[in-house]
């Protein structure tokens, strides 16, 4: 019986580098809490998985704001620009630090601002985020709120908004927002979180040129049944038990509320196709 020469001489057999890379990246993706441990394995593994440590940035726990600030000082701006892709501000963070974070990590693709501090000056800061595609924010406050609400002309909208494909709106529902959704020519997915205002919903369905899905996200189960049925096949409702966890799941390519809304739409399309076939 043949014996592997590496094993016979006591050497530990090695996997092909490309297989090692795939294994460690998959481990980091599905178990992000292990990334800090994985980077200690050896230099090459650190090179492979350390960037994933910065892929998803959030201040959702005690001390997380300090970790963000340490990140800003421990890594050069070009490194953060290259690797930070998802940012969620769950808790309050100083506006100067928000400006520094968003001005440095300009290749962000997914931004959630849930800190309770949304203000018009953020629009100027966000102008640098030309790769932004997913945004979750209080749009009403972003455009000035009750005291200074003002929508800019479509030609003055920053590219960070013009290029959006997914927008999650929460906060104050108001008819003043209606014209905004028609300005977003690339928007395919729109969500209203714990908001159901028929005028807003119907206006968005009628005016968003590329819209494929409009979803009402309820975070309380008793509200889930209060949404009247809308016949537009692009409309649906989903229940989300933990919005923070749902966002992080999506950031790591998991099944978030957008995925579930797409699944509902897909099932409807299949059902509609079968109904059409049965009537032929």
UniProtKB/TrEMBL annotation:
User: Per the UniProt entry, what species is this protein from, by scientific name?
Assistant: Mycena pura
| Annotated Gene3D superfamilies | Ribonuclease Inhibitor (3.80.10.10)
This protein is called Uncharacterized protein
**InterPro entries reported for this sequence:** LRR_dom_sf
